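Hi R.,

Here's the chain you asked about this morning:
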Amino acid sequence: MKKGNILIVEDDERIAEVLKSYFENADFNVFVLNTGNTVIDYVQAGPPDLVLLDIMLPDKDGMTICREIRSFSDVPIIMVTAMVEDIDRLLGLEIGADDYICKPFIPREVVARAKAVLRRVHPEHEGKRLAVGPVIMDEKRHRVTVEGSDIKLTPIEYQLLRIMMSAPDRVFTRNDFISRIQGYNYDGYDRTIDNHIKNLRKKIDEHPVGHEMIHTVFGVGYKISPPQVE
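And here is the predicted structure, written out as tokens:
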């Protein structure tokens, strides 16, 4: 039985073929696009389980494609980039990507990272219902509501919220989040946690509940707390 469908968007045909081979050997179905202009139509027609998206494409850059996908889908996206500056890495995650890979890379690591993203999107313990005040998470349906209204989260935002909701009032450090979500650590990622938390807080605040739900514990990390009864 196949493990899932992977869309590889890469204009370098040699790199695309190498990645395709490794993913197929790992028992995935793989489809390759060499240009960016056809990606949106492909994802809308039948969403893959994960998109491996190169940033430097000849017709439409990966950043733009990622933003467009996030306007209608929460399919996991891993950005592939040759730009190593921290700001480029950070931007790639701020626009809704779930991970990034820097060129040159080891193909086996790309497959491992993709598996890690898929594991956190479809955790083995699905089925629980978590509630902290007006925030409700139905893991079986992969649904989050605030005051009864659905909120749309990226996979990593969903996992950050799930971690905090699993232990209300507990403070989680950035390393706690990284180890639980990624299953591995690498330089630079801890700084993106702040941006994901900021985006998550903004989405919850779009449905005013009269009090702050996600709290920053300066110098330590973050927690979610139910409303205080006066």
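One quick note: Helices lie at 13-25, 39-45, 62-70, 86-94, 107-121, 155-165, 174-181, 190-205.

Cheers,
M.
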